[in-house]
Amino acid sequence: MNITKENFEQSFDVICEAIRSSHFIALDTEFTGLRLPGAAREKMMDSVQARYDLARGSCSQFMLTQYGICCFRYHDERLEARPFNCFVVPSTYHGSDRVYSCQASSMDFLSKHGFDFQAWASHGVPFLSRAEEEVVEGKLRRRWEREATVAAERKEAVAAKAEAEAAAGEGDGGAAAVEGPVHTARDGTTIESLQEPEKGMVKDALKKVEALLAESSSGGEYVQKSVKLEPMNGRQRWLMYEFVGSSTADVKLSNLPGPAYARPMEIRTVCKDDPEKHAEEEAKLRADEQARQLGDLRRAVGFRRVVDEISKAGKPVICHNGLLDLLHTHDKFVGPIPVDMDDGTRALHSLLPRLFDSKVVMAKAMAAGMKLPRTVLGEAHQWLREKYPAPPPPPPPLEEGAEAGMEPAEGAAEEGQQVDGTAVVATTSGGEANGDSKTNGEGAAAAAAGAGAVPPVEAGAEAAASERDVEALERARRGWDAVLAPGFEERYKDGGREHEAGFDAYLTGCCFAAAATVGLGVGLDELKRMASGEETPAALGSAQNVLPLYKVVGGQQVCLPGPAPKVDLSRYVHVSGFPSAARTDAVLASIKAVDGCVDSWFHWMDDTSGVVDCTSAEGAEALLRAAAAAADAGADASAAASGTPAAGDGGSGEEADPCRLSLGDLKLVQMEHALLNGGGRGAPEAEEQEGGEGTARGAKRLRRS
User: Fold this and answer.
1) Which long-range CB contacts under 8 A does 495-501 form with residues at least 24 apart?
2) Is 400 helix (H, G, I), strand (E, B) or coil?
3) What pTM value is reported for the model?
4) Where is the composition biased (Polar residues) (predicted)?
């Protein structure tokens, strides 16, 4: 369901009901950029704080374009999804005016995936963060206090005017009305000193006040009257308050909804004969105006109300590689992201206390034996669909009187036939399952007829399967392959909307459910109990409130509410002292020649240093021993040569062969947390931008690492 400002208010209750009735909620966002000009790139040697700093800088400068929400619930033992794809834009209410950046590559990416920029800019749902709402509400309340003070001053001025008129007589009253303090603004401006068209505008409004007062009491009994003035800018409205609003205590001016540069005003009369009724009407007018402004503020808060509802519901929230999604959520709907990571993770935990990242859960499922090829959303979901295909359509019923041995209808799946890579299990005419005479005939027939069942065996496996296997696989598919709830089928019924926030939220929830139920064996009842606030299933416990980081040494993660635990770096070795011409393949050849390091990986840090992932602590120790032995051997050879320069040290006048490296010429140390950087310029990325020979070498390093 697409949500815009035109249908947001009428859809809000639907969204809230979906949130409250869900068992878990998946989120996804789309935004205008990833990396600011001059900002560091992510590097293998980054610390968690360094990655947090990069993400915080990005989220504070770029803007959300879409916020996807998909509410999942188990209904009749089948996972059901309610996706909402929401266009969001910052509100400009009462002086709020966010400035944000757009990155060309990100906008191009959105465009290539069918993003509707017109819908975003013109029809996006406005929002204010909690911090922005507090600022605006504070401005409103200070304005109300000022207006109350000004109203009291005007009331005193009008009373003084009336006394002066009574003392001076009716003949002098006209002069007092023009020259008196009531017709002088607080900055000393008088009506006569105004230039046209402002002078004419004020005098016309004063004439309307006179006519309005006469009309309100023309029948002998006071009747409240009002007149609407044309839209005015801020200067013109100030003149109205200073001269028209202060001309008499028998009228009240108020702003009507509209943009600040062209906002209409309304003049309403108040009772001039009954002081109590006068005060009552003035109080009501002020209350009405304040209620209207608070209503405008509520509408300006807009989509933030949905985020507040998710936070209040306390349901498990699922994201995918979600650090940026969550920091954007905080920046746009709560307030500025804290600089310190521990403060930031506590703030995120306070906002969404029960968080799972589908990438983390899928990785756990893969470690437990699930054969997912990758944790990329689209690929993972496609693999699951192929692994657990939908059942073939049931054959049409036999016509009345037809023989049991008649030919199957055209297109019906036959026994042993492969459908979507899965063998079809058929039943015999006697009601026995194919290859298993002990299978209950009624249950097998139901499985063969479709009935939501999943084919129980994969291609190449034995065609016969017990009813228990069928039911187990049926439950597996029903537990993760969410059907779209009634009223939500149209937009995503055919899929194919990757990188639309609502659809990606749907994929995120499906992949989480598959990894949890199929990969980790979590039961549907356990997920339901978790949604109601009970204990998290043991299989998911270590994945709760953990966010992954992309390509970082030691598999470091962001943990909520923090602090991030220190990871074991014993399998990593820091290497420095490479000659400028060193090539990645030569480095790897030298490393993999060491016993125990055949499966090692190498990652450049800058032009002359990098880190080796030896895959085990034993491999790292072997590499360090080999380097020490090579260094000793090199020193002995140098001494034996009686001062003859070693090859490659520059003394021979020949350039070192970049395809040959000696570990003895390098400095290798055990990796330590102190060596993790806070994020600086990465050499490979810089070389790509600088061009020339460095470009090829930098690109080669990136490809090989």
Assistant:
1) 497/114, 498/113, 498/377, 498/378, 499/30, 499/109, 499/110, 499/113, 499/115, 500/30, 500/66, 500/68, 500/85, 500/113, 500/114, 500/115, 501/28, 501/29, 501/30, 501/66, 501/67, 501/68, 501/85, 501/86
2) coil
3) 0.72
4) 425-440
pLDDT one-digit tens code per residue, 6-45: 999 999 999 999 999 999 999 999 999 999 888 888 888 8
**At 25, which CATH number?**
3.30.420.10
Asked if residue 630 lies in contact with residue 664, where contact means CB atoms within 8 angstroms, the answer is yes
**Cα separations in angstroms, 621 against 140, 427, 612, 684:** 67, 61, 12, 28
Q: How far apart are CA 567 and CA 555, in angstroms?
A: 8
Rounded distance, CA 667 to CA 591, Å?
13
Per-position DSSP letters for 423-471, written without gaps between them: EPP-B-TTSPBTTBTTS-HHHHHHHHT-TTPPPSSBTTS-S---HHHHH
Q: 454: buried, middle or exposed (CB in 10 Å: 19+, 13-18, 0-12)?
A: buried
Q: Is 82 helix (H, G, I), strand (E, B) or coil?
A: strand
Is residue 474 one of the residues assigned to a domain? no
Q: Which residue bears the tokens 């090859």?
A: 647
Q: How confident is the model at residue 471 (pLDDT cuts 50, 70, 90)?
A: low
| Contact call for residues 269 and 226 (beta carbons, < 8 A) | yes
How large is the greatest C-alpha to C-alpha distance in the chain, in angstroms? 125
Same domain, 152 and 225: yes
Is cis: bond before 389, omega within 30 of 0? Answer: no
3-state secondary structure of 229: strand
Per-residue exposure over 246-261, b if at least 16 CB sit within 10 Å of its own CB, e if not: bbbbbbbbbbeeeeee
Phi-psi region of 554 (alpha: psi -120 to 50; beta: other; left: phi over 0): left
The residue range of the domain holding 536 is 1-126+302-388+481-558
The pairing of strands 601-606 and 609-613 is antiparallel
76 with 169, same domain?
Answer: no
End-to-end CA distance of the chain: 42
Last residue of a domain, one of 300, 317, 337: 300
Query: Is the same domain home to 295 and 306?
Result: no
Name which of 215, 216, 190 is nearest 203 in CA terms: 190
In a domain, 435, yes or no: yes
Assess whether 179 and 116 both reside in one domain.
no
Q: Given a cut of 60, is residue 172 above it in pLDDT? A: no
Give residues with Cβ within 8 angstroms of 481, minimum separation 6. 79, 384, 385, 388, 390, 510, 514
